[in-house]
TrEMBL record:
Listed Gene3D superfamilies: Winged helix-like DNA-binding domain superfamily/Winged helix DNA-binding domain
InterPro entries attached to this UniProt entry: Sig_transdc_resp-reg_C-effctor, Tscrpt_reg_LuxR_C, Uncharacterised_AroM, WH-like_DNA-bd_sf
Keywords per UniProt: DNA-binding, Transcription, Transcription regulation
Protein name listed in UniProt: LuxR family transcriptional regulator
GO BP, one annotated term: regulation of DNA-templated transcription
GO molecular function, one term: DNA binding
CDD domains: LuxR_C_like
Phylogenetic placement of the source organism: Bacteria, Pseudomonadati, Pseudomonadota, Alphaproteobacteria, Hyphomicrobiales
Residues annotated as domain HTH luxR-type: 229-294
Source taxon at top rank: Bacteria
Amino acid sequence: MFLSVGQTPREDIIDDMLENLDLPIEALEIGALDRLSQAEINDFKVRPGETSIVTRLSDGSDIVVSKPRIAERMAKIAAAFQPNEFDLVVILSTGLFRDFESTCPTVNAQRAMESTVISLAAHGSAVGLIQPLEQQIGELDIPALAPYKVTASYAADGNKRLLASALVDLSDSEIIVLNSVSFTEADRQTVAKASGKPVVLARRIVVSAIRLLLHGTHPVAMPGVPAEFLEKLQRLTPRERQVLSLVAEGLSNKAIARQLGISPKTVEIHRSNVMTKMEVTSSNALIRMVVAAGHP
C-alpha cells in the first residue's frame, strides 16, 4: 500500500519504483486528498505560520498544503490499517517529520532519507540538500543534523535551470541529496553530470528499503546490487533482513517491535546479529552500506 500526500493515481512515482524493483507487486494506492471536495482540499492550503509541503492532484496540478495538518490526516489513515492487512505500507513523501503508527511493516520515506543524510554527514561529508520548494529551505529543521555541515537549496523536479542554480548554492557540498520523491532519475543524472559529485535520489532510497523489507518475507531479486552486499545479505535470516531495513530508517527498537509484532528484546538480538553478519560496527556504517548498494 502506497500512501501519498495528494491524490491518486501517482503513476509518475509508483510505476518508476516498480520498474526498478522488478518484482511481482500488487500496488495499491491511497491519497490523503482522495475523494475530497475542492473546498475541503483548499482547507488544507498553508496558513500563516505553518510549514509547507507540495503535492500533486489527480488533474496533474500541484498544490502546496499544510505539512502538520496533512501529516495528521495521513497518520489517521495509516493507523486504520488492520494488522497484516498489507505486506508493506510505504509513506510516499519526504518532508513529513513524524512517525506513523502502523501494525504493518512500514517504509517512511522521510525517515529513510533523514537517516541517510545523517549517516553521510556523520561520516564527515558536506551534504547539500535540494528541496522542491524555496520556502522549505527556511523550514528545514532536523535537530540531529545540527552538528554537521548541511546546506540546502531548492529546485522543482524537471527544471534544469533551477537545478543548475541550486548547484551554485551547493558548490561546497561533497554529496548532493535530491530530497523529494518527485525528483526523477533524469534529474539525478542532470545534477551528477553538472556537479561531478555523488547524487542520492530519494526514490532509490525508498526502493532499497522496500526491497529489504520484502526480502524478509518473499524471495526477491535485487538487480544492480553489488555482489559483496548481496553475499552479506544472504547471511541474514528473513527477520534480520526486515530489522536491517527498519534500522536503516533510524527507528528505535520499540518502533521496530511494534511494526513487526515482536518484543523490543528480540529486536535487540536481531539488531546485534545484523551488525555482526554485515560486518559493521555502527548504525551509520550500516546505513551508508545500504545507500551505496542502492546507488551503484
